[in-house]
Each structure stands twice: as C-alpha cells, then as structure tokens.
Amino acid sequence: MQMNMVSALNSALDLAMKENDKMVLLGEDIGEDGGVFRVTDGLLGKYGKDRVIDTPLAESGIMGTAVGMAIGGLFPVPEIQFAGFMYLSFSQIVNHVARYRARTRSSISLPMIIRTPVSGGVRTLEHHSESPEVEYAHIGGLIVVEPSNPYDAKGLLISAAHSKDPTVFLEPTKLYRLFKQEVPEDAYEVPIGKANVVKEGDDMTIITYGTMVNVVNNVVLKRNLSATVVDIRTINPLDEKTILDAAKKTGRVLIVHEAPLSFGIGAEISARIAEKAMFELNAPIMRVAAPSLPYPLPGDEQYYVPNEVKVSKAIDKLLSE
Amino acid sequence: MDENGNIDEQLFPNGLTDAQITDMYKQMSFARAVDAKALSLQRQGRFVTYAPLLGEEATQVGSAYATSKDDFVVPSFRQHAVFLVRGFPLYKLFIALRGYEDGASENDTPQKANMTPEIVPVATQLPHAVGVAYAKKYNKENSAVVTYVGDGGTSEGDFYEAMNFAGVFKAPLVLIIENNQWAISMPRKQQTAAETLAQKAIAAGIPSIQVDGNDVIGVYKAVKDALTNAKNGPTVIECLTYRMGLHTTADDPTKYRPDADVEAWKSKDPISRVRKYLEKKGLWDDAKEKQMQDEHSKTIDDAVAKAEAFVVDPKSMFENVYSYVPQVLKDEEDEAAANSFWQGNV
Prior knowledge:
- The structure holds 2 protein chains of 2 kinds.
- By secondary structure, chain A is α/β, with parallel strands linked by helices.
- Chain A folds into 2 domains: 2-182, Rossmann fold; 196-320, Rossmann fold (3-Layer(aba) Sandwich), CATH 3.40.50.920.
- Chain A has helices at 5-19, 43-47, 59-71, 90-97, 100-103, 133-137, 150-162, 212-222, 240-250, 265-277, 301-304, 308-320; strands at 2-3, 23-27, 52-54, 75-79, 112-118, 143-145, 166-172, 181-182, 196-199, 204-208, 227-231, 234-236, 253-260, 286-290.
- In chain A, the strands form 4 sheets. A 5-stranded mixed beta sheet of chain A has the order 9-11-10-13-14, sandwiched between helices.
- In chain A, helix 1 (5-19) runs parallel beside helix 7 (150-162), helix 3 (59-71) runs parallel beside helix 4 and helix 9 (240-250) crosses helix 10 (265-277).
- The longest helix of chain A has 15 residues, at 5-19.
- The radius of gyration of chain A is 19 Å and the shape is globular.
- The termini of chain A are far apart.
- The relative contact order of chain A is 0.12.
- Chain B is α/β, with parallel strands linked by helices.
- Chain B folds into 2 domains: 9-312, Rossmann fold, CATH 3.40.50.970; 314-346, no CATH class.
- Chain B is built from 13 helices and 7 strands.
- In chain B, the strands form 2 sheets. In chain B, strands 1-2-3-7-6 form a 5-stranded parallel beta sheet, with helices on both faces. In chain B, strands 4-5 form a two-stranded antiparallel ribbon.
- In chain B, helix 6 (157-169) links the parallel strand 2 (145-150) and strand 3.
- The N and C termini of chain B lie far apart (63 Å).
- The chains are: A alpha/beta, B alpha/beta.
- Chain A binds chain B through residues 24, 50, 55-56, 58, 60-61, 63-74, 76, 91-92, 95-96, 101-109, 140-141, 143, 163-165, 193, 237-238, 240-241, and chain B through 72, 74, 101-102, 104-106, 109-111, 116-117, 119, 121, 124, 126-136, 138-139, 157-158, 161-162, 164-165, 168, 316-317, 320-323, 326-329.
C-alpha cells in the first residue's frame, strides 16, 4: 500500500498497540486532535482515553510520567510535540530514561519510545526545526533512530516497540508528507543498529541519514555518480562495521547531515574511520552540515540547511583530492 | 502525640496497637543507629557521600509503616528509613553507600520491596510516582503510590507538574513533603513566600494537610487516611520536621545555621517522646532499651561486613546499559578488560 511517513508511523503505532495492551501513548494534542501532524490520528477512537492520553502542557511531566509508567509495567510512548520543546524534559531523559538500567544493574529497565519531530526545511516558527540527535546519542543508554523514508519509519518503530531499551525516535518533519512509498500493511521489523546501504558505487562513499538522504540521492542521480550511499538509520549505537566497509571500498568519504557541523555525528563517524581505516583512504574525510550556529528563523532557512548545491560542491572537492 | 508522650485520644488512629507503636519505636531507633554508623563509615572513608536522616525518623518510619506491601514507594535521596521499614536489606543500602549500582541489583532489588532506588536530582522522582500510580490504575490494582520530596524540592517545576498530572489523572498517590526546614543552606522561609508548603496543592486541585512530622503516630494516621482515600485521587501531606544533622557529609551547617535554632528542636525529638509514652504504659525500660541497642548494633555490623565483602566487577558497568551490549560498546569493554581496566602504574 502507498503510504507517506505519517501514515506509515500511524500504521506502526496501531499494530504495536494492538499487539501489546500495555502500550499507552501520552502527549499534547495526541488524542482528539490526532497530534499536530496527525501521526496518532484515529488511535483514540480505537484504543480509548486510558491508552491515548491527552496530557497537560508540560514536557518534563510527560517524560517523568512515562518513566513511572515503564517502572509500573506499561510500555509508554511519550510524544513531544517538537524537538525544540524536548529540552524541558531533557533532565528526565538524561538523568533517568538513559540511566535507569545502568543505575540498577538492569533490575529496572525502561522500555519506551520517545517520539518527536525534528529538522527543518518547512519554514516553521523558531524552536520547531532543530536536529538534536547528537544530544541524545552522546549520553549512552538511549537508542537513537531517525528514518529517512516511510518503509524504514514503520519497520524501525515496530522494532522499537519490541525492544527492551528506551528509544528516541526522531521523525523528520519535512519527510512526513514529502513522498509516498510501497509499505506493507502488516507488521515487519527494520533492524535497529543496522545501517542501510542505499546504493553501491565505486568512486566515493557518502554516509548520511534523515532529511539528507534524499538530498544526497538526488545529487548522485542528477550527476550520474558512482557512489556508495549509506543511510545509517540508527544513530546510537552506530553500525560501525557497515560504515568502515563502505569507507574502505571507495577510499573517499563524505558525511552529510542537517545538524550543525561542530561536535556533530559527522565528527564521530569521521573519527572512527580515521582511527580504523585511515590507510585505506585516498582523500581526507569531508563533512557537509549546517553551519555551527543556532537554527535561524525561517527567513534564513534556505541559507542554513545543507542543499544539493552544497553537497555537489563537496563532492567536487572530494574527487579532486 | 506531644513532646512528652501524651496522646490526643480524639485523633488517635483506629486500630493502632501498642505493639505497633513499640515496633515503630524500634524502627526509628534502628534508623538512627544506622544513620550514625553510615556517618561514621563515611568519615572513615569507607562510604561515599551520605545524606543523614537524623531528626526525621518519625516522618520516614510513620509514613512507611502506614503503607502495605503492595503499595509502591518512590523515595527521594534521604529516605533510608523507608527502605528499612519496607524490608529492603540493609547490606544492599550499604553497597550503594560504598558507591556501587549493585545496591539495586539482582536479588533483593528495590523493586522487590516495591520501591525505586533513591533518586538524587531534586523532585524529578515525583512525575515517576505519578506514572507508577497511573500504571496501577490502568492495571486495576487496589494499591497506591507514596512518594517523598523535601521542602527545597517544592520549588522545582517537576513538583508542580507532578501534582498537576496527578490531579488530572486522579492518580492513587500520596505525596509527602518531608519539610526539614533546610535545603542545604536555604531556610524554609527563604524558599517560598507561601505560608505553608501544603497549600501549594490547592492550585492543582488536590487536598492537602500539614502534620507534625516528629509525631510518628500523627504521620502514620495522615498517611494511612490518604492511602485509604487514594482510590479517589491524590493527597499532599506536609510533614513538619527538622534536619538535626548535615545536608550531606559534604556539608558544614555551622557556616549558615545558628546553634540556637537546632537546640530549639532538640526537645521535639521524635524518638524520645515515644519512649516516654511507652515507659508511662510500662512497656519499656532501660533493660529493654539496652537489649534493643545491642541487637541493632549486631544487625548493623553484620550488614557492614556483608557489604564490605562485596567485590565489584567493572564489566557490569558496560553490560547493563542496554538490554544487549552493542558492538561499539563491546569493543570498548574488551579493550578495557584486556588492560585490567587501566589499573596499575604508568
């Protein structure tokens, strides 16, 4: 069935809730309204208000309550309406969600899925466009995933629903309705912790995820390049083997992400390749990312988010080295 | 019960027996002995930083004693006596105080005592308690959740968010404010312009009361009543007590707290008033006191020995982060293990 990312996620939540009667959704405007992006549309009618909970407007309260629900044996799926507001619950996520298993030597674990829309490119108000993945990946204890297409979105969400670990599930706003794809109506899993080699090529390796997968694919297609493109899909834990194999294969590596350049996911991937595959490279590792500054108001957005031109110029440089 | 051990019969809780009062007396005395030992072991470098409970025994023992086994308790960081009353083994508390997560591991977990471990960031545990209470309601369990916060914690956002959520959910929850008058160096009157801390519940639509937190019977009754009513929704109870000791072993209260302030609370000691009551009834004497203290010493020494016999495996650090060990983390673990976790000399 043809689905966009919103309907794929909705289908995954529906199937997961049907399968596990301990799963409850909680967040702002997720019930009657079906979520501001309609990801939870129709689930209140199907599963009732005890399982699809419209909460008061308080992100830390939502996250802290989810922690308690998980301790109490439920499988909570807290939704934070935008990643820019998730900082109000950052204390709960860092101090408790990420640490509970470690802090209790696994006697208490917190299986849950924290869903939030991320990234920009859709001219929203400020605080609605951030790409905060590194902030959650850096802590340890959180699985962090970010799909780039409807098929992966559904499969990763179902895997997260079967996981015993807390997952931060980042949904790129721009991709919610950007395109449709053939997606099975039944449940299926896309494995967490496994990168996807989107295409194989010989001249360069481009490692990316989220909103940038389409940008990279478009450049490769338009310029008819022979590139290996890797969509990492799971940000933490990294699928290091797939990344290293892809890097060694072509000897030229470009890493592309929408989040700011400095101290980003690209720095982490680049360091791992440098440590473990440096002598199999033919050129310095390169990165394309947003500038190292806070996300601007929407007026400047097109100068900030990496685009096809920026990726294409970086490829020129990578091939000339 | 007042400071001289006199009971107000009209307020006396139904069904509370002298045997139970004696038991609470023993539990409070045990908590005080454990507290003194923990302080001493910290000073010897055998325990890490410790938050003493001296002076707050009635609030902790009275409230915990009112809970049933099926109730769930979400403590803050000072409620050591609550763990003990609920049957959590002392040696596990001591393992935690040696600085190891294993205090909460394997057998005898806090969860077996229907508790979470002690929670250090102030007030962040309160929304957890709401979530556990929601889960109880969802699962149609008849029991409730009891949680604790200090006076300083009532200034935190999570305190207000938790009360607000609990009110909306009609959560079966009893939120105890253990008001010991000091948040490290901040006296209660500088913490808020509100006349009482209990009144903060009014804005969330939750009933609340203040109780003498040094009166173990008063605390017991307030919590028992709130638990009985928990199926109808949450209650906030402010227990007025006093931190006779340090905030933690890293603190020196002589820098900010006048001695006279502490002296004034000595006559309100939560344990001595119960002893007076029991002696008046002929239920207690010096011989019984000595026998009890000897028993407590032995129990505590045994627990210290058992906790100090524990040897940590640093691999546990790596192997309890996720439900599996991801390859990237396994590589780090293997490297550390192959190098004896970097111990030795350069």
